[in-house]
């Protein structure tokens, strides 16, 4: 270990930008065994591992790096799998530059962080290939049933832990495939879909019941699910697109990011997608403007490039250093041909039947806002026009009005619309109804959803055990 002084940092080789922009395959292959061991050996084995501290799952990163460096890959996988429900997925899509790798001690020393995410992916992909990923083994049956609303990362992580605890688990999701944003939101060049599907298939084989195409409020109310199960977990995520305030109202050509990404991912599955096939959600040959600076905006930019757009520009109201998305994603997009127009915001759209252009306002960074970030403000001398016949709004997501949609006015929500919980127990205002993931914390990272799902499962299990004990005493 500690070979960082002689072993340079080396990520897996990326395919050439022109090659990877031509398909939706992941942009880099994983390590072979020798470079994985060599890169793992760079770990400094810190007494206080900041990588672990800054990982929401508190993965035992230095330990499985050491095991990988020693060639003990199965042990490395088992240790990685002990704290994460989806390590190969986190290895692909976590913003390691803001989490574990961004807080690596040797990164601060100028030697370049250990390539933690790439090694994490290598370990678990190898485990799948070698047959080390064991089937999900349910625990001793408890006779209790848990309903989970939402088959995204929080719901799937909770389902796995609850099934291991011996509960009967039913997962309800509005989509025809499980996985949530892992399936329909994140493009294949970041997360190929067989990686997600094999996780879902493992859970189904372990006895978890999936009810796809099931919409709470339409197929059952929340109260009806409460009657059906001993406990319910709300893990829907947040899907309501934030509004874009700009003058002009073209009848077509301005679309929501999630609609756009879902259509692209469905085409990857081979589905019939009428709004893609008629050109509404297809960027081919279009001058595309994406509005936003988060990871969803980066996904839209890079998807449009792969759909062979005539041009792709991203408008963001702050500068590169103050954008919320991963800087690695920005670099990948620039390599593939995207143009970033920093310090700019749309002011108006031109066109009547279809959008034909964007009138943008130049911005500057003013004093810091309440959150400590410098607030963007319009420059009095700035304004310019961009051609556009497809505008994609990627401004983030808010919670849907679940109490109204689900016919459950007693479900407490915050002023942001997220579900209100007791953060010690993760229970809502309704007895036996819990909530986890983005529907509680707001739009966030997959790794936080996984952590929340695992913690919710622990809390639900403890509540069900206490309830059973109380019933035995009463009897």
UniProtKB/TrEMBL annotation:
The FAD/NAD(P)-binding domain, residue ranges: 146-453
Signal peptide (from-to): none
Keyword Isomerase included in the entry's annotation: no
UniProt entry keywords in alphabetical sequence: 4Fe-4S, Iron, Iron-sulfur, Metal-binding, Oxidoreductase
GO molecular function: glutamate synthase (NADH) activity; glutamate synthase (NADPH) activity
EC top class named in words: oxidoreductase
Domain Dihydroprymidine dehydrogenase: 21-131
SUPFAM superfamilies tied to this protein: alpha-helical ferredoxin, Nucleotide-binding domain
InterPro entries (UniProt xref): DPD_II (IPR028261), FAD/NAD-bd_sf (IPR036188), FAD/NAD-binding_dom (IPR023753), GltD-like (IPR006006), Helical_ferredxn (IPR009051)
EC number(s) recorded for this UniProt protein: 1.4.1.13, 1.4.1.14
Name assigned to this protein: Glutamate synthase (NADPH/NADH) small chain
Source organism (scientific name): Sphingomonas jejuensis
